[in-house]
Amino acid sequence: MAAAVDESQKWVLMVTAQTPTNIAVIKYWGKRDEKLILPVNDSISVTLDPGHLCTTTTVSVSPAFTHDRMWLNGQEISLAGGRFQTCLREIRSRACDVHDKEKGIKINKKDWDGLHVHIASFNNFPTAAGLASSAAGFACLVFALGKLMNVKEDQSQLSAIARQGSGSACRSLYGGFVKWIMGKDDKGTDSLAVQLADEKHWDELVIIIAVVSSRQKETSSTTGMRDTVETSLLLQHRAKEVVPKRILKMEEAIRNRDFTSFAQLTCTDSNQFHAVCLDTCPPIFYMNDTSHRIISLVEKWNCSEGTPQVAYTFDAGPNAVMIARDRKTATLLLQKLLYTFPPNSDADLNSFVLGDKSILKDAGINAPEDVATLPPPPEIKGQQFKGDVSYFICTRPGRGPVVLSDETHLLNPETGLPK
Ligand SMILES: Nc1ncnc2c1ncn2[C@@H]1O[C@H](COP(=O)(O)OP(=O)(O)OP(=O)(O)O)[C@@H](O)[C@H]1O
Ligand SMILES: C[C@@](O)(CCOP(=O)(O)OP(=O)(O)O)CC(=O)O
To answer: What catalytic activity is recorded (predicted)?
Structure first.
């Protein structure tokens, strides 16, 4: 017979999940409700392959745990923040009966209120460096807790909970191409993510991220967008007049795999988002000279080809996310980027190009010396900026969250403490 919940018992139940990060091609910037995290416009993103960028989170429950605890990248962090508390509360309130027959554990719906959780999470990329760790992180937390607590809500409803951890997190509940519908309801019940197409729909796309700086940024997205909402008239125009039409066009471009339109919309929207940041008082500068050089290189190349080969987009930081129409274009792009932004002399190629390294081979680069043999890209007049890019990540559109096997647990299955 399964045992009822009793504090003297030592059992620990756990679930580990992996969740991707995402990059917005139509940006979310500005809230109409700060607490519920309700945006002023819809947004659309591409989910990035979790094989290259992801969060892994283990959540566990035991009658022996005395309070909720969390470790992020090995360090214990406080769960006192409102966003963590909201996610925990919202998920707990939807918890259902759990019966683990193998372990002989039975948790009744009503028991969850008295039980505490231990959480360990690991980002396989820099945290708070403009690579959307909060998006993958909160999506993974909510998804994993949902599994542990046998929450019956579907992915969209879970996305509305993850949204309250970090707005962009709601889009990481799905793979492929995702839309965050801003919703109309004051309580936010209809502000959730839906999948537009899965990752197989447009699998020629190749994504190259130039990590320009992995230092923590000066103005967080949360603070930056608050200032923008308070001061920018351009944001009001963007949210009311520009984005609604752009969303329809972007949905059509994704549906038809129309790269020309996809690239034009992506670049224009990124540029408008940064224009809105400049229109904020005091102005916010997320891009730097390296970001501007990358824009210039891509714009000139696209112009000389007559049709866009590559789309670029920048979030709240200087890192460039470039989306190439196919693998051949991505190979050419990587050659141009490596020529323009070669690694520092002491860097090894293996840590300079991460993710899908097979593109390096296609580009004919097997050793650091090969970078010097690349042809100078005409777009940037052969200028070189050694060391200005910390590293590149080659990736592609990827799948949504998954539950991982028991061997991947980040917490000790006996004690519920980090391994
Ligand atoms: N794996 C994780 N699990 C839970 N929360 C996380 C995780 N990783 C990051 N976070 C939360 O997100 C915060 C970092 O968010 P922040 O917006 O500053 O950076 P970012 O998401 O990496 O960059 P950006 O939003 O510009 O893309 C962390 O301080 C933490 O609160
Ligand atoms: C520029 C962006 O990346 C902004 C993301 O902002 P966050 O989701 O990090 O902000 P909060 O909701 O305050 O946590 C654009 C986007 O992802 O759509």
So the answer is: (R)-5-diphosphomevalonate + ATP = isopentenyl diphosphate + ADP + phosphate + CO2
